[in-house]
Amino acid sequence: MRPVALGRKNWIHIGSPKAGPKVAAIFSVVESCRRLKVPVREYFSTILPGLADLPIRCLADLTPAEWVGRHS
User: Fold this and answer.
1) Per-position b or e across 53-71, b if 16+ CB within 10 A of its CB
2) Which of 20, 31, 54, 64 is the most buried (most CB within 10 A)?
């Protein structure tokens, strides 16, 4: 999480009030990938293309922990 701490000053003017929580959610997923030793780029390239077509009840299956279980 050190990059997050170092970047805080740069992210003061992130664009809009809604952007902060979205960035925090993305960082949370990235950090989960790092802790599970999941390749972040591979994870996102697999998950993101079909995300808009999935029902909300399937989101739990897309977490990094579930993804690594299916791709290991």
Assistant:
1) eeeeeeeeebbbeebbeee
2) 64
Tell me what pLDDT residue 21 has. 78
Please give the tally of structural domains in the chain: 1
Decide which of 48 and 3 is more confident: 48
- CA torsion angle 31 4 54 64 (round to 10): 0
DSSP letters for 2-48 = HHHHHHGGGGTT-SSTTHHHHHHHHHHHHHHHHHTT--HHHHHHHHG
Residue type, 22: K
Q: Indicate whether 15 pLDDT > 90.
A: no
Tell whether pTM > 0.90: no
Q: Taking the mean position of all CA atoms in its chain, how far away is CA 42?
A: 12
